[in-house]
């Protein structure tokens, strides 16, 4: 193990390539000379999710939906409930 606190960009690229190749954290850590926990934390802290919707639909991030648009939906659907 090296004494650095952070991984280098080269090490991060190696982690990315090994994960694409479906390698385990343990085997990646062995290759880089780090602890498997370091690899898992690195992946956890830098993971990026793709914004994709289900088949034939666009992505809908409900976290970005404002209260105003929710109220508008309620008004539009109010006639259905009556």
What can you see in these coordinates?
It is a single chain. The chain is mostly helical and 82 residues long. It has one domain (9-81). Helix content is 56%, strand content 0%. The chain is built from four helices and no strands. It has helices at 9-20, 25-32, 36-46, 67-81. Helix 2 (25-32) packs across helix 3 (36-46). The radius of gyration is 22 Å and the shape is elongated. The N and C termini lie far apart (68 Å). This is Transposase IS30-like HTH domain-containing protein. InterPro entries: IS30-like_HTH. Residues 5-44 form the Transposase IS30-like HTH domain.
Strand runs, count: 0
What helical percentage do the residues reach?
A: 55-70%
What is the mean predicted local confidence, pLDDT?
78
Major sheet, described briefly? none
| Domain tally | 1
Shape: elongated
Radius of gyration: 22 Å
What would you call the quaternary organization?
A: single chain
Q: Count every helix, treating DSSP H or I runs of 4 or more residues as helices.
A: 4
Low-confidence stretches: none
Beta fraction of the residues? under 5%
* Order of SSEs: HHHH
Distance between the termini: 68 Å
Structural class: mainly alpha
Topology:
Elements: H1 9-20, H2 25-32, H3 36-46, H4 67-81
Helix pairs in contact: 2-3
Quick structural gist:
The chain is an all-alpha fold and 82 residues long. The protein contains four helices and no strands.
């Amino acid at each position: 193990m090296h004494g650095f606190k952070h991984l280098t960009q080269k090490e991060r690229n190696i982690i990315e390539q090994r994960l694409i190749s479906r390698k385990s954290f343990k085997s990646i850590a062995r290759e880089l000379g780090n602890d498997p926990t370091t690899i898992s934390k690195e992946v956890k802290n830098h993971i990026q999710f793709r914004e994709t919707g289900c088949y034939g639909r666009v992505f809908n991030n409900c976290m970005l939906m404002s209260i105003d648009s929710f109220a508008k939906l309620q008004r539009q659907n109010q006639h259905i409930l009556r």
